[in-house]
Fold Transmembrane protein 45B.
Amino acid sequence: MANFKGHALPGSFFLIIGLWWSVKYPLKYFHQRGKKNKLDHLQQRLELIEATIKTLFSAIGILAEQFVPDGPHLHLYHENHWVKLMNWQHTTMYLFFGVSGIIDMLTLLIAHIPLGVDRLVLAMAVFIEGFLFYYHVHDRPPLDKHIHSLLLFALFGASISIALEVIFRDNIVLELFRTSILIFQGTWFWQIGFVLFPPFGTPEWDQNDMDNIMFITMCYCWHYLLALCIVALNYSLVYCILTRVRRPGGGEIIGIQKLKPDHTYQTALLSGSDEE
Amino acid sequence: MANFKGHALPGSFFLIIGLWWSVKYPLKYFHQRGKKNKLDHLQQRLELIEATIKTLFSAIGILAEQFVPDGPHLHLYHENHWVKLMNWQHTTMYLFFGVSGIIDMLTLLIAHIPLGVDRLVLAMAVFIEGFLFYYHVHDRPPLDKHIHSLLLFALFGASISIALEVIFRDNIVLELFRTSILIFQGTWFWQIGFVLFPPFGTPEWDQNDMDNIMFITMCYCWHYLLALCIVALNYSLVYCILTRVRRPGGGEIIGIQKLKPDHTYQTALLSGSDEE
Amino acid sequence: MANFKGHALPGSFFLIIGLWWSVKYPLKYFHQRGKKNKLDHLQQRLELIEATIKTLFSAIGILAEQFVPDGPHLHLYHENHWVKLMNWQHTTMYLFFGVSGIIDMLTLLIAHIPLGVDRLVLAMAVFIEGFLFYYHVHDRPPLDKHIHSLLLFALFGASISIALEVIFRDNIVLELFRTSILIFQGTWFWQIGFVLFPPFGTPEWDQNDMDNIMFITMCYCWHYLLALCIVALNYSLVYCILTRVRRPGGGEIIGIQKLKPDHTYQTALLSGSDEE
Amino acid sequence: MANFKGHALPGSFFLIIGLWWSVKYPLKYFHQRGKKNKLDHLQQRLELIEATIKTLFSAIGILAEQFVPDGPHLHLYHENHWVKLMNWQHTTMYLFFGVSGIIDMLTLLIAHIPLGVDRLVLAMAVFIEGFLFYYHVHDRPPLDKHIHSLLLFALFGASISIALEVIFRDNIVLELFRTSILIFQGTWFWQIGFVLFPPFGTPEWDQNDMDNIMFITMCYCWHYLLALCIVALNYSLVYCILTRVRRPGGGEIIGIQKLKPDHTYQTALLSGSDEE
């Protein structure tokens, strides 16, 4: 949907999942380091709810793209013409996120699916989004083209980072990076909506002004900074709350990590394997 | 061969190998996790048959490209002119896959070839295919150009993924990804054939229509989704059949994998090395 | 600031940090291999001072860009026009390095921040610098465009290399590479200043001369060679001084490393994990 | 030197080193697996000779580029004009390979240089060669441009592969890949010489003919195939000779490697670290 709502909807979806991740991953990280093998049941249930919501969001997105008044209503080809291909492309994007959600669910429910498949499919979903956007933006005014193509940096970056999680699963740094990119993408969709389809009667942006393009490029960086701050804030909040809750029982968390000169992630992994 | 058969032939080759892989890799994966060190002899024989068929397919492809009525019949340069360079380029593509097949055979038969060389040569064969396609598509109508250049995403993606298998050999996720890309490539070759050379008298596609290009871009994503579904289906089938067969003897497979928070692939590898 | 000072300032910042790194990392490397777990307190204090200086430099950069006489003085939008976007873009670049400095400090001071986040944020800061430069250089004379766009190779190379340090933390080779790129970037900023804004009344360069562009391309390589030599020199100096200082107490350093055929970095890491 | 000799000289250098590597690496590989820790002294001496020859070749290249009759004779700037920048660029390429040779020597002679620096500098030398070629080929006839730019695939591929050896040092597959690329580069330089400057009075190639470009693209692939075959042949020869020599003393080599389903390179590395 080439209007404000068509950008606000996916933006909100990405923001909601991103904000949830910015709470979930710190929680998981501290939990793992504090005590082992508890809350697992709760954690698995939360993951399942998350996967369901992800699938649901995709379904809502597909239905919205198809059945808005000027949507294709599931008609693809009609009287020698393709019907509303833009909406169909958006449908395809949502569809891949939906598949990713279903795979997440299956990975949790069925034991015989190899770990990593969920990350691979998510990486593919993000890649497909970038791929479709890449071929999406021809024949548009410069600002429209630019504001959409900036998204490609985030999408291909996220795709590579998520694909790395197939090998380096449960790496907190990669997970936080993914989280920050997702929030970033969410706020950027809102920004696109505000720039291209000003909702409150604010004046239109001149789509050919070079200065606008230059500002938007810089604004893109600020959005990422904002996303970083949100992740950092939620990370700190989770830490503070966890510390408060646990203080009576003893400080399990404080002082765990010391900055040794040879404390590499790799060795952490290796010594982790000895403990098991 | 710039006609329907010239695309259906490699498409079928890729599909056959891809479908076989979508059965082989799950089979290997469950087999490894269930019991150790059995069926090895059978497995090695199957691998050998696969390598032979791969080489055979390449030979058929080369012969077809060279000796079709309008082929070059092994003439490369004739009266100051290069003869049928298109067919020669296709021959080169098949040739590299043939070399990859031969290397696969040698790796199985001769113990002193380092593991990983087979993957590297396969990655090179896929890269060469992409490389030749990249310089292949100039001076053609837009749709023809676009439909071929889309293939590059699959080819370079597959090439990187297969090259990773040099380091992370026998990683089931990378193997399934490779399988899905191969099936995808197979169905896409058929799609190219149907679009550019409609076989059953269906009307020609307008090669300059922007909407056709937009549809094809999206269609490309759907093909990948189809490939993913085929892999998932075959994976499930293999699992079901294996479970049925083994149930009398005890459930070796069910409940092996638990989703621990720190269950990384890396640690799996490491603990695997302890067991040996 | 599109003048000589505007390039000399960041150039000096990069040079100072780069030269300090070219001393720090060899020192850390020899220190780790000689004796274990000493000087840690001093080391941590030095790291903290470095992070503070990094943040300070960024603050100076931001203030300089904003409050030079022809700067924007924190005005972004004024009378329907964006104010001095060039300066704002430079401000954004400094800002990200400032955030990276703050994250470095926090990682040192607070135990619960996962190792690797500091590297990721630094990689992002370098990427953002490259990203903004990429969209920065349109509509300029060829030499100006070329001399700035050459910087992108260093920036994106550094960004990838620093991102690798998230996984392979404390790898001396990656650290030295990062150091060499930083010094390189520092000298290059000075070079840009001298070429585009000759400070001592030297004649202007012809910005459209193809030969000048060809020379600058080659000159860029020489700058990297210079940076390599500086790193090598400082590395040797640190080694010599350390050896002199320690000789009375016995030769801890000499003869530690032997070139075994199977002495891979990976095994070094692994045996390192056993020792802990 | 834009003539036949100017391409034959580096081509020969690359070929000589490449052919030597195609013998050295198999030798090292079999040697390591057969008996441990012998011949080390000889091996180190060979490595030293190789590094010296590499440096020597670079020196010859630099001298040839500078002091051919129409060379710059070390003059860079003369009467407001850059002197023979083409030759200076070639000099720079040789220079970096020379630095790489010196670093190789130092790594062998001095124990305190971290392993991996030699690979990093080699990767940089190859990258710089590619980088200079990339900006080298503007304003030339299409065939000239194309035949040089094809080289970039080999150079950037080799650069990435060599950089990987910083982490995965002594991986035989990466070493053989590097060897094949080097031989490939050597034969391709000869090919460039024959195409652009036919030495034996053969007719000139039409530099604007699309068919010639198409043939050269394919020919490039054949050269790589040739390089692969040379590496495979030398590998087999080394194996046969080693087996003959050792047969009296018992078959140390045969039957070492079995294709186990979970025999990953990673586990090989890990179990290797246990043995030490």
User: Anything to note?
Assistant: The CA atoms of residues 46 and 198 of chain D lie 37 Å apart. Chains D and A do not touch (no CB pair under 8 Å). Residues 249-276 of chain D have pLDDT under 50 and may be disordered.
